[in-house]
Amino acid sequence: MKPRTITDSVRWMGAEDWDRRLFDGLIPLPDGTSYNSYLVRGSEKTALLDTVDPSQAEVLMSQLEDVPRLDYIIAHHAEQDHSGSIPRVLAKYPQAKVVATPKCVGMLQDLLLIPPDKFVPVADGETLSLGDKTLEFIHTPWVHWPETMCTFLAQDKLLFSCDFFGSHIAGTDLYADDEGRVYEAAKRYFAEIMMPFAGVIRQNLAKVKARSPRTIAPSHGPVHRRPEFILEAYEDWLSDSPRNVAVIPFISMHGSTEIMVDRLVTGLDSRGVSVHRFNMADSDVGKLAMTLVDAATIVLATPTVHAGGHPKVLYAALLANALRPKVKWVSVIGSFGWHSKAVEQIAGMIPNLKAEVLPPVMAKGYPRPEHFQELERLAAAIAERHRTLRR
Length: 391
Ligand code: FEO
Fold this sequence. Notes:
Blueprint: E1 4-5, E2 10-17, E3 22-23, E4 27-28, E5 33-41, E6 46-49, H1 57-63, E7 72-74, H2 80-83, H3 86-92, E8 97-100, H4 102-112, E9 119-121, E10 127-129, E11 134-139, E12 149-153, E13 158-162, H5 179-194, H6 198-209, E14 215-218, H7 227-237, E15 245-250, H8 256-270, E16 274-279, H9 285-294, E17 297-302, E18 304-305, E19 308-309, H10 311-323, E20 329-336, H11 342-349, E21 356-357, E22 361-364, H12 369-386
Parallel strand pairs: 6-7, 7-8, 8-9, 13-14, 15-16, 15-17, 17-20, 20-21, 20-22
Antiparallel strand pairs: 1-2, 2-5, 3-4, 5-6, 10-11, 11-12, 12-13, 18-19
Bound molecules: MU-OXO-diiron (FEO).
């Protein structure tokens, strides 16, 4: 991929990783991803903002062939998909300095073994002149590691946001003009890595919005030239108020749990609750994470395996606990043959969910009329609590 022009002084560089299907060995990437790096040329100095994943270093190095001098490498984030090629770039430009938050400086020394004399630590709000262009560094901790920052190019009102506002999409489009597609990918990205830090990200969102950026250039996915699109989406996802949505991750081994799930789905639907039913046998866990951005209720539905919950449903519980969604109500339904500790086990796995626990429904063997009545009561309790929620 050749460099692409954003303004007279700013060029997109980087790599499209079309075939990557998993990030951190955990996060599904149905559309691959990109590692965006940006070259900013001032009248006196030149800076490269972020690098690329080390697996794509050759792509970046070939794009830098016609760049004779580099003064600064701005490292917004120590995670290796952006920082991992800094040693390669430093080898080509040994006079360049790495500019980062003090915390990021320490992390880059640990992760990439870069010598301490290569760094220029910068404070929140500090500026760096490139001549006719000025970079302002905005510390944005926990977006999504403790050391993260953004850079604002004041003359062009261009915000370089690294993971913030990013999306895992590999593609040839420089800009996020296909907003429907980018919305889905950005929400998936938010759910998987940003949602656990929603409180602090809300503060950082206000901080970057105060600069009124005209363009937002993240380090994954396309560039936003209509920034209100992604800023409004983040406002919504970061909101404290969940929507009228219930999520049911489930597994069924011999059919009993599935029958209970379907009765609960019908009971909720007939009472006006929007339901997302996830069969954990083959569901995309990224979609489950996205649904948790909006959901008010999660009901984990499981048969009993060796006296506990099914491992695939336990995984859904672990994921929900790790992502810390804003769900307000939680319950467990399912079945067992002779004995079950599934409810107690799942309850112990979700301490991060600040949710009211609604009465569980567990059937011994095939569900009978009394279980269906309990499921109706559970559906009614959820619907009553969702009555005032936005759709
Ligand atoms: Fe794209 Fe947190 O790295």
